[in-house]
Specification:
Elements: H1 2-24, H2 28-45, H3 48-55, H4 57-88, H5 100-144, H6 147-160, H7 165-177, H8 185-197, E1 202-207, H9 214-225, E2 231-236, H10 243-257, H11 271-282, E3 287-294, H12 299-303, E4 314-320, H13 323-332, E5 339-340, H14 346-357, H15 369-377, H16 379-385, H17 387-401, H18 408-412, E6 423-424, H19 425-435, H20 446-459, E7 464-468, E8 474-478, H21 481-494, E9 498-501, E10 516-520, H22 527-530, E11 538-541, E12 568-570, E13 591-593, E14 601-603, H23 604-607, E15 615-617, E16 637-639, E17 650-655, H24 663-666, E18 675-681, H25 686-693, E19 701-706, E20 727-731, E21 749-753, H26 762-765, E22 773-777, E23 785-788, E24 798-802, E25 809-812, E26 822-826, E27 846-850, H27 856-860, E28 871-878, E29 881-886, H28 887-896
Parallel strand pairs: 1-4, 1-5, 2-3, 3-4, 9-10, 10-11, 12-13, 13-15, 14-16, 15-17, 17-18, 18-19, 19-20, 20-21, 21-22, 22-24, 23-25, 24-26, 26-27, 27-28
Antiparallel strand pairs: 6-8, 7-8, 28-29
Length: 897
């Protein structure tokens, strides 16, 4: 954890000094010197974690104290430099332009401004020198006590070893699980079937999280099918490895298991000779080879050339935590069958749990609720005490240790959220950026880099996507409960975050310097504790139900503007009504989230000062009743011009019809916008709005809602739509769907509400070959029939047809909607029959008929055309109450009666 502790500060401080060195003047030399020391120490400390794990508490105890002192000094430096730059960037009062007498009147304010700046500069210089003395003392202590040399030596020694200590841990866990094979029988059968169906030389990457049972599953398959092959071998891929040693191990295993004499010269063979020997042995044989626990992405690229790919009998299984290992296999070979280790079915998981928890050789836990409830609450300490569980935790920790430095703080950030909490990926990404975890890369936005970080963590099986959007990207994600416990331990080691649980009486443990605070209780920290946390950069508050909000918060501190380094501010789901005027001091604020709060208007003179603001989310609490029409969205009112927000990338939802006459014109300067949501668009403003969107070349999401369901949205004024547009939501009356819709070839999601179109919209929309989700709702179409013609919408996965009062029939022709997985039909009172052609939708998983006319629809239909659909649901309203039926359960009931 040492390199994370120092690295986060270093990553922020070094570029800050290099960019602002002219501003820092006489104190720049001192800060730059310390920054260089931090850079040097960071490179030395990168392997400190591995050395600490390997050598135990003797090493860990001393270096932990040293790193703690070093970290606190680095934090002090960061605070001082940030404060100084903030004040240096303050502008002096403007001279008036209307005459010399006025200028004379402003001279005193200029003198006060420059005197205060000199005092700040002088005071900072002394503070920096004091901190420098302390820093140099700690740095020298690291040399005197041998920490620096020890870590540097440890790094070299670890890299040079032929076997990593993690290999021993894996071996222990493998022995620990070797008797649990029956728990994986369904997964085993699935993999065996893949092996049998394969043709040619097939590679099967088995991907799963640490401790998920990849090795156990592979071993079960190996033992079950090895008799079907002429030869077979199992190779553990240690870290680090050499290609020559992998080939020697494999050849030796194959020869010995085939009762053949291993070539005597094998130890002297180079790679080419080893490859030739292996190929000769495998020629005309049906073989099975398993490479266990591969970490290196390019593994198959280094090994694959040794196998005869055209051989019909070759089967190669690779177990790995890294999705990139599997992806690399796909790039190198044609025949690749990916297998992702799934969670055990409930009955098998329960069976395995009972076997381990209440094993015949004795158990320390009784079968009562109270004891197991206590175990759950003290899971962290139990994991440290129990020898068997320690092995599990060590395996899980390996994934963290193998992470590159830039991903470690991103993973640690999951510890700020409750265990098992699914978190919105976009929220995480924005907070990573605000915390300074994401490094900029040439040619990429910082958001793009952060998304790559998220994809990498998911690909390494450390983070699980619990829900995905129509493009396949993670909408919500979480970490496994045991990994969460590992993260909490790591966070505690470096004071990455302070956790507060329960009442204020539990706050006695608050200690040291920290940058982050996670409050998992109904009370905030009391006044006596606040001084301890004057340097906090991030606070997350959770309600008692673990939702990320503070429902009892009704106002922000008036002096919140003094937190000048704040990058992310959210009052989401709070009772806050007014933003303090001091918010305009937050020069570095990038995200302002007002969603579901009671803030319904913002003065422009406050927001316009936030020149670095990238994300402004505003969707007031529905209790305010500020929507334009029933079922519509709520938007925030902007009082005055906001043309100073040139860095805005996301802006939603703002009202265009109240107190914001300049709003539409201001949008012309927001050329970096990626998401825009406008509520209450008046008919006469359509031309100006769509004229602005021509300049928004980065626009990917657009939501437009008129002032009422009968107010027209003038789409014809958008003659040249944004070429990058992927999501389009339109609520309001449309004359037609304009021809330029056919240009939206990147569109993946479209919603039409209240459009009142008389012509079948599918005639225009069917040209969108990459559309994944289509919603036609609230009389968006007032015709009687919708027909999906042959081959249309080849990528569509979700289709919603809701509240179409005149729709009588829906027809799906062959090959239409080939990938459709969800179909929702609701509140279409004229539709009296099951749509025609649903038997063609072979990938349909969910079919919902919501609010059918009455239960006669359910009992009078022949549902043979949807017999292949796993879930078919119906609802109808009876005496004001909605009743739901599942087709499968309904048939079982009918069969019994």
């Amino acid at each position: 954890m040492a390199e994370v502790a120092i690295g986060i500060v270093k990553d922020k401080l070094v570029p800050l000094v290099s960019e602002e060195v002219q501003l820092l003047a006489n104190v720049g030399t001192e800060v730059k010197e310390i920054s260089e020391h931090l850079e040097e120490l960071h490179s030395l400390l990168e392997d400190a974690d591995k050395k600490a794990e390997d050598e135990g508490d003797n090493f860990r105890g001393g270096i932990k104290t040293w790193v703690k002192d070093l970290r606190e000094v680095a934090f002090h430096i960061e605070d001082l430099v940030t404060e100084y730059v903030y004040h240096e960037e303050e502008q002096p009062p403007d001279f008036p332009q209307n005459g010399f007498p006025k200028c004379l009147g402003e001279i005193p304010s200029f003198l006060i401004f420059w005197c205060s700046r000199l005092i700040q500069r002088h005071g900072l210089g002394w503070k920096i020198r004091e901190v420098k003395v302390r820093f140099n003392k700690i740095h020298q202590q690291g040399k005197n006590d041998g920490f620096i040399n020890s870590i540097q030596y440890g790094s070299t020694r670890i890299a040079a070893r032929n076997a990593d200590p993690s290999n021993v841990v894996r071996s222990r866990l493998h022995q620990h699980l070797e008797n649990e094979h029956e728990a994986f029988r369904s997964a085993r059968d699935e993999l065996v079937e893949s092996l049998d169906k394969s043709s040619g030389c097939t590679i099967i990457p088995v991907v799963g999280t640490g401790g998920s049972g990849k090795t156990t599953l592979a071993e079960q398959v190996y033992n079950y099918v090895q008799g079907r092959f002429d030869c077979h071998a199992w190779v553990e891929v240690h870290k680090p490895y050499s290609v020559d040693e992998i080939l020697r191990t494999l050849i030796t295993e194959l020869y010995e298991l085939n009762k053949a004499s291993v070539p005597g010269s094998i130890q002297r063979m180079n790679e080419n000779k080893l490859v030739h020997t292996l190929k000769e042995f495998l020629k005309e044989k049906k073989y099975l080879v398993i490479f266990d626990d591969v970490w290196k992405e390019e593994f198959w690229g280094e090994i694959g050339h040794a196998f005869i790919e055209e051989h019909v009998g070759g089967r190669i299984m690779i177990t790995t935590r890294h999705m990139k290992v599997a992806d690399y296999c796909k790039r190198c070979s044609i025949l690749v069958q990916l297998y992702k280790v799934k969670e055990l079915p409930a009955n098998e998981a329960r069976e395995l749990f009972y076997k381990k928890a209440f094993r015949p050789d004795g158990s320390s836990k009784d079968k009562n609720f109270e004891e197991w409830q206590g175990f759950l609450k003290s899971l962290g300490s139990e994991l440290e005490k129990d020898v068997d569980l320690q092995h599990v935790m060590q395996i899980i920790s390996l994934g963290y240790y193998e992470l590159p430095y830039n991903l470690k703080p991103c993973l640690l950030y999951f510890g700020m959220f409750p265990r098992s909490q699914s978190i919105r990926s976009r929220r995480l990404i924005k907070q990573w950026i605000a915390q300074g975890f994401v490094k900029t890369e040439q040619g990429k936005t910082v958001e793009k880099v952060a998304q790559e970080y998220m994809d990498e963590l998911i690909g390494r099986s450390l983070v699980k996507a619990t829900s995905v959007d129509v493009t396949g990207k993670a909408k919500k994600c979480r970490v496994h409960e045991l990994l969460h416990e590992t993260i909490l331990k790591k966070m505690e080691e470096i004071n990455f975050c302070q956790l507060i649980r329960g009442s204020t009486s539990d706050q006695s443990g608050l200690r040291g310097i920290t940058r982050r605070l996670s409050i998992m209780s109904n009370r905030l920290i009391d006044d006596s504790q606040r001084k301890k946390f004057s340097n906090i950069h991030s606070v997350i508050v959770f309600h008692e139900d673990k939702t990320i909000d503070a429902p009892n918060l009704d106002k922000l501190p008036e002096d919140i503007g003094e937190l000048f380094d704040l990058r992310y501010l959210s009052v989401r789901r709070t009772k806050v009504k007014i933003l303090p005027t001091s918010i305009k001091k937050l020069k570095y604020l990038e995200t302002l989230d007002l969603r579901e709060s009671f803030v319904y208007e913002i003065p422009a003179d406050i927001v316009n000062k936030l020149s670095k603001l990238k994300y402004l989310y505003a969707e007031p609490n529905p209790e305010l009743k500020k929507e334009c029409f029933p079922g519509g969205l709520c938007g925030i009112e902007v009082q005055g011009k906001i043309d100073g927000l040139k860095e805005l990338q996301k802006l939603f939802f703002v009202r265009a019809d109240t107190g914001a006459d300049h709003l539409v014109d201001d949008l012309s300067g927001f050329t970096k916008l990626q998401s825009l949501g406008i509520i209450g668009l008046r008919h006469e403003d359509g031309r100006r709005l769509f004229g602005c969107t021509k300049k928004m070349t980065e626009l990917k999401s657009l939501t437009v809602e008129s002032t009422s369901e009968n107010e027209f949205i003038e789409l014809e004024h958008m003659s040249s739509p944004p070429k990058e547009l992927k999501r389009l939501n339109l609520s309001g009356r449309l004359k037609n769907l304009p021809k330029w819709f056919s240009q939206l070839q990147k569109l993946v999601k479209i919603r039409l509400n209240y459009s009142q179109l008389e012509v079948d919209p599918l005639d225009v929309l069917q040209t969108m070959r990459y559309l994944s989700e289509l919603s036609i709702r609230y009389n968006a179409y007032v015709g009687e029939q919708l027909r999906f013609k042959v081959g249309v919408f080849p990528k569509l996965k979700r289709l919603y047809l809701i509240d179409l009062k005149k729709l009588r029939s829906l027809i799906v022709e062959k090959t239409a909607l080939a990938e459709l997985e969800e179909l929702h039909i609701g509140q279409c009172p004229q539709m009296s029959e099951v749509p025609t052609g649903l038997e063609h939708l072979q990938k349909l998983k969910t079919l919902v008929f919501d609010s059918v006319k009455d239960d006669s629809f359910i009992y009078s239909q022949d549902f043979e055309s949807v017999s292949h659909v796993p879930l078919v649901k119906f609802s109808y309203v009876d005496d004001g109450k909605k009743e739901w039926f599942n087709l499968r359960n309904l048939r079982e009931f009918q069969g019994k009666s």
